[in-house]
Amino acid sequence: MPAEAAHTQIAQLRGIHLKNIFVGNLSFKTSEDELCQLFAAYGPVDRVNIMKDRDTGQPRGFAFVEMASAADGEKAIAELNGTLLGERALNVSEARPRPERVSGGREDRGRRRSGGRW
Length: 118
Fold this sequence. Notes:
Shape: globular
CATH class of one domain: Alpha Beta
CATH superfamily of one domain: RRM (RNA recognition motif) domain
Structural class: alpha+beta
Oligomer: single chain
């Protein structure tokens, strides 16, 4: 289980209502500290995670911010959506759960493999 998912599950078990927020249209120069400071004006920030390309390690232009309070998170979403950060209008919304992925990427189409290479 990824660390982020485990962290969220632990918080839920303890009765803490975290707010996971999607932040899009980020400059590639935006740092996690900048985002933390921006969102901290609305309440305690539990975690900031700028998503990076798996192969290059370069930022992908979006992040997730986890706030300790759902009410603070809602307030931050309402206030920050559309505001400028580094001359770019932020796209701020509640993060949606990641869709389930089909394992292997191939569907079983009812064909049987008969001992060959494939």
